[in-house]
Fold this sequence. Notes:
Layout: E1 3-13, H1 17-28, E2 33-37, E3 51-53, H2 57-67, H3 71-78, E4 79-85, E5 95-100, H4 102-115, E6 119-123, E7 126-132, E8 135-141, E9 145-154, E10 163-166, E11 169-172, H5 183-190, E12 195-202, E13 205-207, E14 217-219, E15 242-246, H6 249-256, H7 280-286, E16 294-299, E17 306-310, H8 318-326, E18 336-338, E19 341-348, E20 365-367, H9 377-396, H10 409-420, H11 444-455, H12 460-482, E21 484-485, H13 489-497, E22 507-508, H14 509-513, H15 520-526, H16 533-544, H17 546-564, H18 581-590, H19 595-600, H20 606-622
Helix pairs in contact: 1-9, 2-9, 2-11, 3-4, 6-8, 12-16
Amino acid sequence: MPFKETDYDVIVIGGGHAGCEAALASSRLGMKTCLFTINIDSIGHMSCNPAIGGLAKGHIVREIDALGGEMARAADFAGIQFRMLNLSKGPAVWALRSQADRNLYKQHMRKTLEEQPNLTIKQGIVEQIITEDGTVCGVITNLGVFYGAKAVIVTTGTFLKGLIHIGLEQFVAGRAGEFASIGLSDSLKSLGFEIGRLKTGTPPRLDAKTIDFSQTETQYGDDPPIPFSYKTKEIHNPQLPCFITYTNQTTHDIIRGNLDRSPLYGGRITGIGPRYCPSIEDKVVRFSDKERHQVFLEPEGLQTKEYYANGISTSLPYDVQLRIVRSIPGLQNAEIMRPAYAIEYDFVFPTQLYHTLETKKIKGLFLAGQINGTSGYEEAAGQGLIAGINATMKILGKEPLILRRDEAYIGVLIDDLVTKGTNEPYRMFTSRAEHRLLLRHDNADVRLMQKGRDIGLIDDDTFEEFKHRRQSVADEIHRLKTTRVFPSVDVNALLQEKGTSPISEVITLEKLLKRPEIDMDFINTISPSEITKEVSQLVEIEVKYEGYIQRQLEIAERMSKLESRRIPDDFRYEGIPGLSNEVLEKLKKIKPSNIGQASRIPGITPAAISILLVALERHTRNG
């Protein structure tokens, strides 16, 4: 019998972005929680690029914040450049991205975890998950110590049988300089989980002293910077620029001439890599017509000269990496501080999960982050938060938190994973969401803060600020609807200056604002208001896009009717006449919780859904 130290309500395995959110959520909700990490000094480590947010990912960060998670606050604490992307396009695709000081981010996250009541942190390697009658009951570490638990959340990132490749050299590691987790992958296999193999990579880090920035393009952030968190009032860190340069034909010739030394093209890497963030050798081969590829030089922090060369991720040998780097303008004399590498790791096919992120095979066992086949800090953190909440809800016997596709990008992410599955690293994009005008950066609080409040993760002050902000928006929209503008020489002159037609009859401010050429700044010149810039922007979006938003709400409402048609856990698909073997196999494998989810399973036809609805109605009548 192993030595038993103590029991916990929730055990979280892994101290990355998913693990941090999971541990904070469960402990903040009153659960006695223990976070196990291979290295305490690496809690919250940004093992890839030093940035948070971006297209769709920034939306997820705002959603995490609206639900009471921590990532947005950590990003604001560590942020050294903030940029709102896609401002030339519609608000559905506006997205905030920040560069982060890597050490400040870790510092904030570790301090937050260490100061959190109900949370214990232990450095150790969990080797085995222990179950009893199909229910998790604890874990055993590599030291042979048993810890009991009512729920276990696995958030191991790239550590499950991690294998690093640099050229034809390879070594076992969870990431550069850290142990891999070997036994835990075998434990999951022994419990009956289907395991796959994925691959990701990272570019070289360069010494700023050896970079000629005069040969690059400078990219500054927004001034003033816009924070991620609703709690952040101001960004205090000095703001740094990023720099852009490009590969060229010389770079591409070097890569093509050394493909025989690439573990990716030599067959040594068996894991499937990310489609939307390929290595530089993959880009050169797949996009052979492109004359150049962008390299984005990102500062790693305020107190370091290290720069992240985003865009030239590679697993080629070190000598080739050096030649690649020095063929790029501005980097002719650059020194590599840390080499690029690729890493392979095990993951669990996510169709083996419920929407709660609890596994279907083992009760009380939850998976979150890259173990579910995702890539990216933000996708991991969103899953970790949901897993931490739902592990707690299960222990307390309460209803789980399941976000719909029209409520959150986190809902889209989880539904895609558990319904469609993935065999390559999954990355979130705005195009994955069919209701993206409803899932905007600016309205995450409207969509989710009440849920965070009901769960118990949003405090009184934050919620009162939210209510005040919404009331200000409502009051201003009412003012616009009821304030009339009369035709006058002065008003029409201003309208013509804006490139829009003059008015010949009385019109409300609201109707005026609906014109494409008119914004809230113009409205305030002819009818001043005391509202803040933030409220002004919220009002403008709601007024201008009212018709589009209403149509998407109607579509979402129709879809919610399918979501409300629950499929009982004991429902048997065998014997339903008219279902093909393919459809039957997929329904039995995924075990959809409702008709809406069933309709999104690849290969399930509308005809099959009609048959399923009839069978479900018959099952309901027969009791």
